[in-house]
Amino acid sequence: MSQRDDRTHEVEPEGQALLRTAAADLRSHVEPRWVEVADALTSRTLRASRPSPPVWAQAPSGPVRVAEQVVVTYLRDRLNPVAGCEVHNVRLEVREERCTGVVIVVVAQFGQRLIPLADDLRTRAESVLAEVLGQDMAPVTVTQMHVHVADVTPGDPSLE
Amino acid sequence: MSVAISGSGPTAAERSDEVLARRGALGDREAFGALIRRHGPALYRYGVRMLDGQHHAAEDALQEALIKAWLNLSGFRGDSSVKTWLFRLMANQCLDARRRRRPLSLEDARLAELPTDDTTAADALVQARELREALDVALAELSWRQRASWMLRELEGLDYTEIAVVLDTSVAVVRGQLHRARANLAARMEMWR
Fold first, then answer.
1. Which phi and psi angles does A122 have, rounded to 5°?
2. Domain hosting residue A16, numbered range
3. Per-residue pLDDT tens for B17-67?
4. pLDDT over 50 (residue B190)
5. Cα–Cα distance, B184 to B189 (Å, whole number)
6. Is A73 on the interface with B (CB under 8 A)?
7. How many CB atoms lie within 10 A of CB A17?
8. Domain containing A75 — which CATH number?
9. Residues A68, A31 share a domain
10. Is residue A41 in some structural domain?
11. Which of A71, A143, B152, B183 could be stapled to B158 by a disulfide with Cβ–Cβ 3.0 to 4.6 Å?
């Protein structure tokens, strides 16, 4: 302990010592009521749906509209397991409710070969779009699909 | 060329706040649920004390703050930490809840909760609880900004700049509020002794 700390301790009123002890106790204290309400608060929160504009898709029964968020979710789930990168953002380009392009922003791990990574992500994304929007929709090809590397991390980008 | 696919990856609890927020912004409910489990207890503790021990009001405020966070995650740009952003949402909800209700005076009953000099609790746990309760009473006597500044600094470990973001004020104001809060609380705790 430094000399300054010793001096502080000598002149410290007991109120401050009690305050420090009480604060330390409160810091580690979890409200018992939290344990009771946590699940309900969480599930009510996650039931709230985000507004999402529609895009046309081709179902076997004919054209249907699906929320953009559905497409984004499929892309996220299919692309995130690719080792050495983490999806940062997915943006659909939509014109008159038709998907005309996709921008996929990723964070890559340092040392990752970016061009093969981008090619792989593009191929996977194309397959997801065909699956979700239907083969008969206007194809979103490599030329309308951009993979942008926004950041590079030294460690696993899915953790940090 | 084919790129490797990860096997059974890390759990949500192992991921940083930033990764969880990023995944949540893309609609990953599990990731946002992990953020709630990580920061929920502290947000709730903050709400309970900022709303004078009213648990139901704190639950309502937290519910609103969490829904706002979930709906607006895609707008979170990372200008502050995820924790600071969540506390800012919670602080605003608490402030709204406080404005909506009639001002409360400190009840005599709460003052009576303060242990008196004849308290000779041998049990350390009991003493710790009593000390914490005394601190709660002392906190309830502080002004809104003093109480919020002290809690965010001493309990949640936010720095002055982060507290200023949460409370939408300046670092100089936070410094002044903290100084007064510490002095007031120490004086109150001295009385408890």
1. -65, -45
2. 6-48
3. 999 999 999 999 999 999 999 999 999 999 999 999 999 999 999 999 999
4. yes
5. 9
6. yes
7. 15
8. 3.30.70.1350
9. no
10. yes
11. B152
Q: Is B44's CB within 8 Å of A73's CB? A: no
Q: Model confidence over A86-135: pLDDT tens digits?
A: 999 999 988 888 888 889 999 988 888 888 998 899 999 988 988 898 86
Task: Tell me the CA end-to-end span of chain A in Å, nearest whole number.
Answer: 34
Q: How many CB pairs under 8 A join A and B?
A: 154
| Residue B76: pLDDT over 60 | yes
Nearest residue on chain B to A117, alpha-carbon basis: B3
pLDDT in tens, B25-37: 999 999 999 999 9
Domain shared by A38 and A58, yes or no:
no
Q: Quick check: A159 and B18 CB within 8 A? A: no
Residues of B in contact with A33 (CB under 8 A): 44, 48, 55, 59
DSSP string, A50-86: PP--EEEEEETTEEEEEEHHHHHHHHHHHHTTBTTEE
Q: Is pLDDT larger for residue B163 or for residue A84?
A: B163
Residue A1 lies in a domain: no
Domain count, chain A: 2
Burial, B4: exposed, middle or buried (Cβ in 10 Å; 0-12, 13-18, 19+)? Answer: exposed
Cβ distance of B29 and A23 shorter than 8 Å: no
The length of chain B is 193
- How confident is the model at residue A11, as a pLDDT? 42
- Both A86 and A144 in a single domain? yes
A134 and A65 both lie in a single domain = yes
* Same-domain pairing of A70 and A146: yes
Beta carbons of A37 and B134 less than 8 Å apart:
no
- Residue A81 identity: P
On whether any CB of chain B is under 8 Å from the CB of A128, the answer is no
Per-residue pLDDT tens for B108-128? 445 444 444 444 544 666 777
B190·A14 Cβ contact <8 A: yes
